[in-house]
Batch of 2 targets.
Target 1
Amino acid sequence: MTNKDVSPRPEARLPKGLQDISAQEIRAAEAMLATIRGVFERYGFEPLDTPAIEYTNTLGKFLPDLDRPNEGVFSFQDDDEQWLSLRYDLTAPLARYVAENFQSLPKPIRRYQVGHVWRNEKPGPGRFRQFTQFDADTVGASSIAADAEFCMLAADILEALGIERGQYVVKIGSRKILDGVLERAGLNADDKSKHLTVLRAIDKLDRLGIEGVRLLLGSGRKDESGDFTKGAGLEPNQIQAIVSFVEAVGGDRDQTLAELKALVEGSSVGEEGVAEISAMHDLLSAAGFGSDRVVVDPSVVRGLEYYTGPVFEAELTARIKDKRGQIVRLGSVVSGGRYDGLVERFTGETVPATGVSVGVSRLLFGLQLLGKVQGDAIEGPVVVLVFDKDRLADYQRIVQELRTAGIRAELYLGSSGMKAQMKYADRRGSPCAIIQGGDEKAKGEVQIKDLILGATLTSIEDRAEYLKQQAVAQFAVPEADLVTAVKSVLARQKA
Amino acid sequence: MTNKDVSPRPEARLPKGLQDISAQEIRAAEAMLATIRGVFERYGFEPLDTPAIEYTNTLGKFLPDLDRPNEGVFSFQDDDEQWLSLRYDLTAPLARYVAENFQSLPKPIRRYQVGHVWRNEKPGPGRFRQFTQFDADTVGASSIAADAEFCMLAADILEALGIERGQYVVKIGSRKILDGVLERAGLNADDKSKHLTVLRAIDKLDRLGIEGVRLLLGSGRKDESGDFTKGAGLEPNQIQAIVSFVEAVGGDRDQTLAELKALVEGSSVGEEGVAEISAMHDLLSAAGFGSDRVVVDPSVVRGLEYYTGPVFEAELTARIKDKRGQIVRLGSVVSGGRYDGLVERFTGETVPATGVSVGVSRLLFGLQLLGKVQGDAIEGPVVVLVFDKDRLADYQRIVQELRTAGIRAELYLGSSGMKAQMKYADRRGSPCAIIQGGDEKAKGEVQIKDLILGATLTSIEDRAEYLKQQAVAQFAVPEADLVTAVKSVLARQKA
């Protein structure tokens, strides 16, 4: 059975949920990723690249339904009929890599990886089917020092990106402390469903406030639209214990830990959790990461069904406004935690692991709103215009002189006239254009036209002032002074 | 119909033709790509990223056979049953992008792109199903200056990577000049099959020499194994014309062009070809790219069925030896040419285009053999050992001090004893280890162990000399002098 394309001209378009990335976005992302890479390198992490394609069962998915092979992940069959998939995260390939190479790798394994991942899900605003992930993990280390390090890393990354101290906070939570609080409150540890309801209620603290959480822990809550969410049905004293737990967040780590210690007293899992976070606190303090950067916040309950120990997330706290002046809540930009199941499905053995993931697009968006984007320092090229088509070689010589001096430059390569060439230079974001007509050539000169200053001239109403500024914006120099003159134009534009 | 995985433990392995990339290779590739990017930026090219997935018909493939959807490209169906594929090069996505955005883009369009591509072909040694491509194209410029620029770019890229002038050559060929020679020799222009046989014969010059080419142009050639390849069956005077054409390659571009001009005299297509290459020659000379860097070589007939004008390729000419001392012929490391069919299949209109592709893995291999790899300057981290598990905070403080000073450093995060920790530091390529036991702590000191110098000590037979060197390799400093002492160890290792 074949199915040949008969349409003579395909439409030029992208499938839904996929996008082209512009030069500006690429440069901003590259600069950000390079900075993050630098911090990971400084911390002793090594880069690793795995391919985009893995065996479907390696990725921890069941073999797909043949009728819908692309549910969630993009899948296809190899020549030998085995199912392959595009990776949907960087953790599953790491698990395969670690299981495959465990014997030969120095342990603990410290690796970071940045790359595209693909999700075959319904795309939406800001949700794409291809996006970039940046992960770092330490595998084979049960030491709590590995977790503390990721909190330091998160803070150092944000500061390396130009986010000032006080504009972000790293929050540490713990599943074990929460379990201890629930145990002390008399919740049956085996009632997973009630535990999940409690988790979900805590997770809504940001949005509903503590009173909303109280209702969700108790009888339930009716929202503005009248919809009713059933509560966990806890007793008042149980609710109070959880509320005290959630509210035990403060600037000072010592104080928060003291409150938490009191709340879990007598619960062995709870005390273990407090001891872990206390150990992290000591390491953080020794390394100079005080409560102004890293706090203990029990309301951090991210993905607790996946993580097995401390969890952490970094959040931008600066009041970030979008173009319309609205305050934007970005949520966490770096997050992670400890998990034990990494390679167990391959080897049957539990290997301790802890890791962190940078929310690449969310963090980049935050940097843009804060005006902290790097990499946009690359400006458009100086464009050497083609005044006389027979003198291309002269113009090429000028271009080469600029390039040799390290100046971004190009020869206009189209076939249009001077007006269109000027428009082209403008659209390329060119700082200045170089023109050499017959008159200039005869005098051994070139014209330099400052396109940034030139664009402001039309707003000058006074004729004398206009002429004066015009002379600054467009002027002739001897050919020998070309590079110096262009450099001075670039310098005054940056001033 | 479903097909669930019943095996409890998947095997941790990669599908054939796919590979993990090590830290060392990643760093070498990143450094090379960054250098190449820098040159493209200097020439005024802008980066573009397109997604890995496109509609199959956008990529110029017919919709796949439903029984073998992955022939050549990896394909899968979207929810709406439309066929999607992983890109197999960066040119087809560029064509889609240009056709989709033609009206809104400044023209000519100058873009570069680096990214993974996927080919569902039989993998072999050095042949993978995922690899990196680096392309740059100028679209919408019929000017020969665009072609000349790519030859300059190829030379500048190789020099930026540390390959010296004289160790590489950029060769320019032309389909039009070849057509002129064949026309003058009396070959029927419509006999595509005979043209192709001639092309293939010329393409074998490198391997068979000019006598082999003569045989293939004539009656045919028997190789060492006795296999006979049928020839093009040309007349002796036709063969001589083509041989003169192929041999018209020389150091001096002026001279080569004069010879070619004589060979095509009277053929309008041939004269047009010579005029084009002459114009490129003038531009190259004006920009200072002499015959020591860029030559005219008619034997360059790469993919002439695809290209429509000048073609060019850069080759490393240095005598490169592999590990076993064998001379390696790398072939072209940068190549490209002019082609007109780029967006025609979408829009029906011919848009002139010329482009270049960097052979990423081949070039990297060449740089490795030439000892010109950049990016391996990153050495292993300084490892702070855990002598006493109760004093983690002290060790963490030391790590942080090193990191703050910009030194790559890490705390040993495993649970093994000192001997295993030293082994770990060695395997990480660590320049030195930091140790602080109880004695040192009491004296306010730290021990620094130079692992590079330390590794050489066992070869010293003289006891006095051994002790002297050992004192240099491992020594104690006051805590306050830690950073200075580590920096001096790093500096002496680099000296």
Target 2
Amino acid sequence: MNDANPLVIFTPSGKRGRFPVGTPVLTAARQLGVDLDSVCGGRGICSKCQITPSFGDFPKHGVHVEKTALSDWNAVEQRYEDKRGLTPGRRLGCQAMVQSDVVIDVPAESQMHRQVVRKRVEAREIVMNPSTRLYYVEVEQPDMHEPSGDLERLVKALRSDWDLPDLEADIGVLKMLQPALRKGNWTVTCAVHLGDATFSPRIMHVWPGFYDGSIYGLAVDLGSTTIAAHLCDLQSGEVVASSGVMNPQIRFGEDLMSRVSYSMMNAGGADEMTRAVREGMNALFVQVATEAAIDRNLILDAVFVCNPVMHHLFLGIDPFELGQAPFALATSEAISLRAMELDLNLHPAARVYLLPCIAGHVGADAAAVALSEAPEQSEELLLVVDVGTNAEILLGNTKKVLACSSPTGPAFEGAQISSGQRAAPGAIERVQIDPATKAPRFQVIGSELWSDDPGFEAAVANTGVTGICGSGIIEMVAEMRLAGLLDGSGLIGSPEQTGSSHCFLDGRTHSYLLWDGTALGGPKITVTNRDIREIQMAKAALYSGARLLMDKFGVDRVDRVVLAGAFGAHISPKHAMVLGMIPDCPLDKVTSAGNAAGTGARIALLNTDARRDIETTVHNIHKIETAIEPRFQEHFVNASNIPNAVEPFRILRTIVDLPEVNFNTGGRSDGGADGPRRRRRRG
Amino acid sequence: MNDANPLVIFTPSGKRGRFPVGTPVLTAARQLGVDLDSVCGGRGICSKCQITPSFGDFPKHGVHVEKTALSDWNAVEQRYEDKRGLTPGRRLGCQAMVQSDVVIDVPAESQMHRQVVRKRVEAREIVMNPSTRLYYVEVEQPDMHEPSGDLERLVKALRSDWDLPDLEADIGVLKMLQPALRKGNWTVTCAVHLGDATFSPRIMHVWPGFYDGSIYGLAVDLGSTTIAAHLCDLQSGEVVASSGVMNPQIRFGEDLMSRVSYSMMNAGGADEMTRAVREGMNALFVQVATEAAIDRNLILDAVFVCNPVMHHLFLGIDPFELGQAPFALATSEAISLRAMELDLNLHPAARVYLLPCIAGHVGADAAAVALSEAPEQSEELLLVVDVGTNAEILLGNTKKVLACSSPTGPAFEGAQISSGQRAAPGAIERVQIDPATKAPRFQVIGSELWSDDPGFEAAVANTGVTGICGSGIIEMVAEMRLAGLLDGSGLIGSPEQTGSSHCFLDGRTHSYLLWDGTALGGPKITVTNRDIREIQMAKAALYSGARLLMDKFGVDRVDRVVLAGAFGAHISPKHAMVLGMIPDCPLDKVTSAGNAAGTGARIALLNTDARRDIETTVHNIHKIETAIEPRFQEHFVNASNIPNAVEPFRILRTIVDLPEVNFNTGGRSDGGADGPRRRRRRG
């Protein structure tokens, strides 16, 4: 020690400064702007400010730290240790006082702006910066000589202890405040919404004394088929429960267009669907709160992502205009509301945030994908495809980002495929065809065994082999093409042309027998040429959307492809590329982002700055309307070929052999692929 | 005319400038910042911008105005004239174009910030500046090449045409916007709330095309006994209907303390009372909207004033703490809410504003009185007394303003008086006693005749003479004192002492017979010495509150006295002063403000700047808590005397003779006046 005040060095930030002997570590941290959490404001109650002192020589920092560098373990720490236990080596930052030079580590969980772990390093970081935080304060008692409301004295305490602006109080707070202050002996814990463009900063809830629990938020992905919610702890960022329900709107129509039609055909139909989705939402909230064993009233914030039709119906807007050109949205900007305005049963003061929509067919879900995948931050040119019944496509890098949607239709979900089905136990999800024997083998959901493995029949005895799901049909078609059973134009060859008894004449075209389960009381699973046509149209729509964006960007290749959506998570990149669904690209550069829309919702929930970011990004995204782009039609026709009539797919051809077969014997043998303009949009 | 552009001079503002030939008058007005109204933005639709050109020589302005100074009457004006008629000499400012030098008068009704006429010149001006205004705009149609929401294009139009900031939309607007835009052929009229400290500026409603109606606001005075509402046109400021209902909380207790007790004694009692008052409020809204023949959904704003207990119960706050020292308010600041948060059935987006409370016993009603009477703007030292069962007292001038409340009790409303009653037909409201004969005469509510006028009995045959109302009892007691029937200590003399047969022994003290209606089947109306005691206590409480403020101000006289409250409107200043209710003051300086609290509510409704003003004023008001001021007790004892034991009342004595009588024959003959500390507060 020397004459100067002791030196305090914080890691990992590296911030350092000299403080008088006896300065609490929390005070030093605050003065240096070190990110050290605290709810109780240094009163030794909340234990959020835990730190770990390091002792010994630190040549890097040029200090030696004595064992006595911090004050002795005190009664407050002992009480906390007895009650809850403290990780060995940890101290409470508000209790431990600086005695001599010291190096102090702030563990991740003690950082207010802690980083939430994401599995995928290439995507956006999640740094905690939630809308709502907890603050503990001691409040002055009322004084007849200087009359002021209890609220005004609370606001004053929050201002002086926490540097918060002059807060307003929710009406529910007015009701609970006086009993809480008296029960807490003039101390309370407040949940404070820090404000946004719509709402001024506001006290949402008060608890008497120190509130030892947490507060929660919901990240909700409102899909046409399912509604999925992640319940997140707004202090730690942790997902404490996840749950899903079917969208009850399904009874009004399976796909989006049929729901738009329902609202057109039925007076009050839109309102009926609005009520249905909100009721479903409330049921889901009960479910997810029950799963986490928390009170639903502790949910103070919620972020929603959805496609434009769902967005409008959820908000109570008739989606009529979205069903016809020019596909005008009622509003495209992000929306902040109170949950009660949407009849949502959360905390009475809870807030709701809906991400902005990008365009009439590119919704808040696509914005959430953009938020999760951050193309605008990518040096590589990134193509993000959210594969669903309507594909949303983003292409961009730090220079610019383009977006469009393309009407893929429901074929990728197994619909309109003769043996197609939703992904469920018993559905074929992986397929291989031996190029020599042309015989297939496959796996079904619910079993790890291949269909030619011993014990397969026993393994699938419960589920049966019931059909082919979306990822299965993609592998199936690609494997048929690789095995020379299918030509580039999408014709299945005859038994004679292919030399395979699995091919058989089925009306005017040929089909391929994948599995005959009739002996076991199950279905015969075949792929018809009509099925191939459906997949051709779906993948052509997807590819031509991506290709159109590449045109607009002025490139003919992309650096990286991200497949988003639950379906995207199951697609085999190789098979998708054989099909020509996605542009030619090194296979290791094709990755799945899983439910990127849901992740985007979670990011916006946990970090309000991310909301401003995505609002700006969406403003800057250049929207392309495929319906009015002449080249889309041309790309579509080319992309109907497998993999493509004109694109070379050079990288793909280094990996696989694409047999040069042609089963056309003159004269079209089926109706051919529809043009994209004849297809209506679906969700 | 000379080479320069024509000179345009506006009156009454005197603003002037030169504009090119052909400039519309509205454009010239806008460029000069002349206050000329317009809803349609100069499209010749709304007719709000009517102006009157003047012709001939104007030496004062140094111009000569030709008959041709404005362009000819045009087709738009002709269409308006045919449809609705235009006052002769008027032109539409957006159609009439400047041709040569011209003097243009902007009539009051064409001014956006028009002044609303108030009868009393000494009180605050009301200048229109409402929270919510109408704006007509033409909106760009959607374009697939540049997708944006209909709302965003509307917001853009409001920004570019009206210089409005980027507005948000209420959720109801999202629902109605798309059909309205299409029905109005891409024109709509918007009701826009211009924002406040709580809410960002926001579109509240849209109508297709030009909306030709008005929008409305409510100024509500929520009293313990009655709820009164004024429905105001938010464009003209006019009161279009006024109505009142009994406060349904009366079933839980007549006065405030009994309601506070009800909430203490009954679990859920406060919630019950909250529901009751809100239901009563909604019934009143139906009534007032029906009276004005308008749709209740056109009511977009509402301002409420009330005492602290009503304030808390209306907001859903248990008034428990207001029933006991230190009388802590849950909140004292002004409150902005959505009407739906208080379960009020107005427009779904309607806003609510509650004025701030001054202290635990000096509520938003007293703040409203301060807003109406503006003591902080008065050069004279002004005493404002809101006479009710709890008197709120303000004393101040431009230097400072003090406030207190004083528990007068219900005697001034005729309660706790043996023959007392509410002001209603049949109640005695004016009294005179002949100083020579000591015989009384009186008037009752519902008749102009005095009781000794011929035909009086016939005139009151329907109502009867049923009792004495508050203003009647004040005149009665003052007249008894002037006639020498009552001494300064408040004792009624015996028939022998007074020489009046109207005095008679009534138990241990004397009473005075005012009217014997028994022959007509009515009651005998007397004033007992107990009645005198009640009035003494009430007036002593009022006076001692005022006197305490004078002490604090460091004065022993005031320049002016304003009596507020419905009751205050009926009090005779002379009699009030004989009683010693109010400080000595020239009688012509004692005026009634009528329902100043209601007027204050109306001011806050029509001018949002006034809300900021009263918030500031209330912050600056110095609050005095009478209960803890030792001198209050001393003033109270002195003020129990009629008019006062120590104050000279010199001005009063120049107007009236106060007989020096003393009827005390040794030994107190009744219980004497209670001290103020024994009284509980009432409302």
